[in-house]
Amino acid sequence: MARNRALLLGGILAAALLGAATGGEGEIRIQGNIGNAPVDIRIAGGLAGPLAAAAPALPAAAPRPRPKMPGITEPVLFNTPEADRIMEALQVFPPDNPWNEDISGRPVHPNSGNIIASCNFRRRYLHYNLDMGFIIVPPNQKKVEVKIVGYPAESDKLPMPIPDNAPVEGWPIYGGELEKLQREGRGDRHVLVVDPVNGMLYELFAAYKKDAGWEAAQSSVFDLKTNKMRPAGWTSADAAGLPIFPAAVRFEECERGIVEHAMRVTFTRTRREYVYPATHYASRHTSPNFPRMGERLRLRKDFDTSGFSKHPKAILEGLKKYGMFCADNGLDWLISIAPDSRLKNLDELRRALGTDFEVVVPTGPTEGPRAK
């Protein structure tokens, strides 16, 4: 018995010091096995703080080996084998960027239960929107002026390499002919343009193609080679000030078996606060039970994905490891997926309920894999 107690205590200390423990603020939770015995222990109060402080920050995972970037000589639409090869080669933000951060071992937020309950306001299961298509452009793509008509003070007002066949949100699954959709319609109308060779991302909100050229309510530019985010208080093409393209689920990564980045999710009710890496809020509500912009949620590790088809399973496994950011107001539990007809069996995702998720304690700009 004394030996078992010693093993148990040693396991607790090792888990805490190695960063394997989870739990809310002011507590540490250890889940796992010591020998053949299952362990689920919470340490609260004075001991939790010193143990958590002693736990070293986990370094960023080594980036997955990538093939050489194919030559890009003309615009490439997202739903093509050529785009798959380009995306396979592209590193979207550095490995230690929040979008690429493994949060499977992060502590559970102390108010996770209440936040999850508020997210089950109108829908109680995971769902998806086939919305965020994008276009890949060559490094010498001609840049055009974009007239900003909504949020000029929080926009990056500079010429952008938008080709004539740039898809508007939802196309081709929704919207009909592209040329008509570029000029007509409602909704958020995002346009996402990726320049892989130069490592740049250009995003528009409420974009329309006019006779005189493109106009949009907001424009944002992100350098995919750095961790630089929007200025504090600034929005982006997404309400939270976050980029959209890094969050969109793509065909080629579902084929690999796991979505290797955080995703984006919307909720009906959000809070008048934001948390890193978000830079902007979009709500009047102040309840601590509502998610903040940038709030990070993950699928619980005990959720069984064995009965899912290949593509939904890849998404669910990604949600366990990388989670999803609250990025905008919208329907509850709605994640963004590229409108690619090659993706199959996505309706299986609704078998994941809101209660299968938990909110995690986020890392800051100099924490987690970014800690020095």
List keywords for this structure.
372 residues, alpha/beta, six-stranded mixed beta sheet, five-stranded mixed beta sheet, 7 helices
3D architecture notes:
The strands form 4 sheets. This protein has a 6-stranded mixed sheet with strand order 4-15-12-14-13-16. A 5-stranded mixed sheet has the order 3-5-7-8-11, with no helix packed on it. The protein is an alpha/beta fold and about 375 residues long. It is built from 7 helices and 16 strands. Helices cover about 15% and strands about 20% of the residues. The radius of gyration is 21 Å and the shape is globular. A hairpin with a 2-residue loop joins strand 1 (about 25-35) and strand 2.
Instruction: Output mean pLDDT.
Output: 88
* Uncertain residue segments: 1-36, 43-57
Strand order, largest beta sheet: 4-15-12-14-13-16
How much of the sequence is in beta strands?
Answer: 15-25%
Helical proportion, percent range: 10-25%
User: What is the tally of beta strands?
Assistant: 16
Largest sheet geometry: 6 strands, mixed
Shape: globular
Q: What is the rounded Rg? A: 21 Å
- Would you list the SSEs in sequence order as H and E? HEEHEHHEEEHEEEEEHEEHEEE
Main structural class: alpha/beta
- Distance between the ends: 42 Å
Total DSSP helices: 7
